[in-house]
Structures are given as C-alpha cells and as structure tokens.
Please model this.
Amino acid sequence: MRRHPAFSTALAAAAGIFMLTLLGGLFTPGYSHVSQFISELGASQAAHEYPVRLIGFLPAGVTLLAFCWFAHRALPKASLTSAALIALAGLLTLSPTSSLVGLSQRAVEVAVLGWVVACGWYIDARSRVAA
Model:
C-alpha cells in the first residue's frame, strides 16, 4: 500500500524531531527538557553540538520542508490553518526567562508536529479516496 509523500514526510519529521529531542537531551550532561530550549543542544560549545546539528536539526528541517512542499501541492488553500498555528504558537510560548520555557517549547512542538502528522494523514486518506 503506497502512502502519499505528505504522510510519509510528516511521520519522518515528527519522529526525527522527537528522537533529536529525546536523544540529544539524554546525552547532554545537565540538560533539562523542562527548562531549556532544544536549540541549546546544538548551540556553540554544547557537548554534542555538531552531531545534533548535522544528524538532528538538518534532516528534521529538510524533512519538514519536504512535507510543506507536498502539503502545499495537495491541500486546498486555507489561511485559517496558518492563522490557527501562529495563534497556538503565540499562546504556548513563554518568555525566554521563564523557568518553564522548555516545557512550553515541548507543547508547541507537540501541537505543530501533531498538526503536521494529521495533515499528512488527511492528504493520504484523501488521495486514496480519489484513486
């Protein structure tokens, strides 16, 4: 059973970012998922700066860009979806000085990646009905 590329890239992006966050945090001494940004895992002078950048962030970014391309081609144009994501990100993002900034970032990641996977699933299901 062949899946739509939007669905495959959505799952790959979500899995990649999840693994980046989980493994990068696991192997970085003193890293807290609750109080730190994931960007700190690849920051200059971080314990595993280059592997996190090249094996984590780069493939995740490329996969998300691929998903965006496939989704853009497959979905009807709707500005409401974009506005909802921007509003959600604004509501869940805390000040960088907050002790819970990492927790709010995880919430934003879950919301956005959940939307990406749901969108990929929708495109896949829609393409199966049309076929």
User: Anything to note?
Assistant: The mean pLDDT is 77. The first helix runs from residue 5 to 26. Residues 4 and 60 are 19 Å apart (CA to CA). The chain is about 70% helix and 0% strand.
